[in-house]
Write a structure and sequence with these properties.
Elements: E1 14-15, E2 27-36, E3 55-62, E4 68-70, E5 72-73, H1 76-79, H2 92-109, E6 116-120, H3 126-132, E7 137-141, H4 146-152, E8 157-158, H5 164-174, E9 177-183, H6 192-202, E10 203-214, H7 216-221, E11 234-235, H8 238-245, E12 250-258, E13 264-271, H9 279-291, H10 296-322, E14 327-330, H11 334-343, E15 353-355, E16 373-375, H12 377-382, E17 386-389, H13 395-404, E18 410-413, E19 419-421
Parallel strand pairs: 6-7, 6-9, 7-8, 9-10, 14-15, 14-17, 15-16, 17-18
Antiparallel strand pairs: 1-5, 2-3, 3-4, 4-11, 10-13, 12-13, 18-19
The structure holds zinc ion.
The site of zinc ion (ZN) has 8 residues, from loops.
Length: 425
Amino acid sequence: MNLSYPEHHFVKNGHIKTCQICNSDKLHTILDLGHQPLCDSLLTESMLNEPEKNYPLRMVWCENCTNAQIDYCVDGKEVYYPDYPYRSGVTKELVEYQVKISHSLIRKYGLKTNDLVVDVGSNDGILLSGFKNTGIKTLGVEPTNIAKIANANGIETIQEFFDIRVSEEIKNKYGLASVIVTTNTFAHMQTIGEFIVGAYNLLKNGGIFISETHYLLDVIKGGQFDTVYHEHLRTYSLKGLVTLFNQYDFTVTDVERGDRYGGNIRVHVTKGRNRKVSPEVDKLLKIEEEFGLGKLETFEKFAKRVKTARLGFMDFLIATNKAGKRIVGNSCPGRSSTLLNYYGVDSELLPYLAEQPASLKLGKYLPGKHIPVVNNQRLIDEQPDYVVLLAWHYAKPIMKQLKARGLKSDFVIPLPDFKIVKNSE
Ligand SMILES: [Zn+2]
């Protein structure tokens, strides 16, 4: 078996000069977000006394395959340090969502108790628990210490980065997999080739690889420049994904869209060429073309909208501070770091970011701008005039929850276009 991959599918640290998918040099810079720190490397109080590292953050677009990417790669070992704070089980919505994915995949592929499902980047094992509860064999692969939480919860998880070597180890110990699934990781990895070939090696013939990531069309349509951060090396279009898998013995056989992360794409890829393809694939490729993902002017318009939203937000933030009113932030998702660092918002303008009581980010500071992260009970206790929703892609449920807890403040929604939502609305 030939377990090799093209050289450009191993993204090297540092400046990236060609497309990570098709290796074309026809790249255009869409947005320059300046030099920024890693968005999930929150600082402890003592770290505020030390220098902080920043890296270029630019969104570029490939004219050839329509994929978007950033043009600087930070070493994955630095990005996903052992105490990386993300944990999927924290929000109820996410748990329900992950269980729903597992049930839909069990139905679609008729999975039985002798099938093995492997989740790469399995986090605390929530997605796998949906499979495991119906008796299907599961295995998690998770590089961070969160693997220990998964194991403690009874979801067998190996603490590794997934690559060809690890795929071989799994195959020897657990046998071939029917399904390999990865949510919110496939846009992150430097080792695209290692991952795809590892999946190929571990899957049985006709086995399915399923990847869910944020989706370029939704990012552009929704003005979501804040999904651009160093963890997201690529923002996939379907055309980009098809271009990617055409370089391997895989067929993109189905695609679904959803609203997670403000718009996501779930692509189903079957081991082997010339597999039966769902009409959904051609349908979405056509939608991308009609939307203009193949045209530079689409991206220029996007950049203009981003800059307009920034000015609207900053005008309001400064005017509110000048008027002596209280404005604070709610939640601290990775994307809030991109937004606040690009806009230039520090704790003088926005004194804190409120997070739910179970968050691992409490007591830490936003990278770059050093805004403290506090327990969101403080919102209720202090009733500021305005609360900026930094997880604005979940604005509706968050406003509902906060109002149910007794919050009387008005809300600021920064994107896709800056707007104020009155508490009474
Ligand atoms: Zn390309």
